[in-house]
Amino acid sequence: MTPKQSYLSCLDTLKPVRDALDVFNGKWKLPILVSIMVGNERFTDIQHSISCITPKVLAKELKDLEEHKLIRRVIINEYPVKILYRPEPYAESIIPIIDALKEWGLNHRKKLFT
Amino acid sequence: MTPKQSYLSCLDTLKPVRDALDVFNGKWKLPILVSIMVGNERFTDIQHSISCITPKVLAKELKDLEEHKLIRRVIINEYPVKILYRPEPYAESIIPIIDALKEWGLNHRKKLFT
DNA sequence: GAATGCACTATCCTTTAGGAAAGTGCTATA
DNA sequence: TATAGCACTTTCCTAAAGGATAGTGCATTC
User: Fold this and answer.
1) Which of A97, A86, A108 shows the shortest CA–CA distance to A23?
2) Domain B13-112, second-level architecture
3) Average pLDDT per run of 10 along chain A, which is 114 residues long?
4) Do residues B70 and B88 lie in contact, with contact meaning Cβ atoms separated by under 8 Å?
5) What is the mean pLDDT of chain B?
6) CA nearest A24: which of A95, A80, A110?
7) Topology of domain A14-112, CATH
8) Does B100 touch chain A (CB under 8 A)?
9) Which pLDDT score is estimated for B78?
10) Mutation target vs B (from A99, A104, A114; most B CBs, 10 A cutoff)
């Protein structure tokens, strides 16, 4: 017996969207990337540029982003030792996502107040 | 004493991005919207077009999307009664987000296999 | 020598997301 | 009359996300 299949397939779109969501899901990854990409490099600077993020969460998210090759943790051996977070070239690939979300968010806010 | 402020502000971007994430965060909202926008209308069709989503989760997400005015629940009073989920015009505004995520996901997958 | 900054880690806790499995009330079909 | 489809709901549960608070070791600055 062949099962009834009336639904429209959309896996072409769904699969890559899922792959992207697997990387960026959660409250913090995209905001952190934005902060680093505008030029914040130090742990505390990033923390302060994104209000309300706790150091524990920030540390964990930075590690995730490093694993995904979106940022790099750079150790500068001066005295005192400095640690810098820098965007990898691959990070540029997320600019269209950020732009789309930013645009949408701005428009959504307008919509709410009319 | 004025506090030291060395970090670069990026709230212009961060705020709207957050607003957007507040709406779309989670594993399912965007995939469900995609499914409805390609033309799936019935609960079970949507469920089957997105493999692995449970009816409980789908029901909840559909309610959220309705609240955000992205879809509409339409009751057709034939016999038997039909229930259809249809995209609202506002749903079109998320196309750039989907496209950006899809593009990124495709490219990311390529990257992983090279 | 006291306070502050830096880059975290550690502990504990709450909330939310999400999944598994079964069931419900209705209708239609074999 | 039994089975299947539809659109869910209910219950129970786990894992992950995220937050609060404190502390650490080091260095610099007041």
Assistant:
1) A97
2) Orthogonal Bundle (1.10)
3) 71 97 97 98 96 96 97 92 97 98 96 82
4) yes
5) 94
6) A95
7) Arc Repressor Mutant, subunit A (1.10.10)
8) yes
9) 87
10) A104
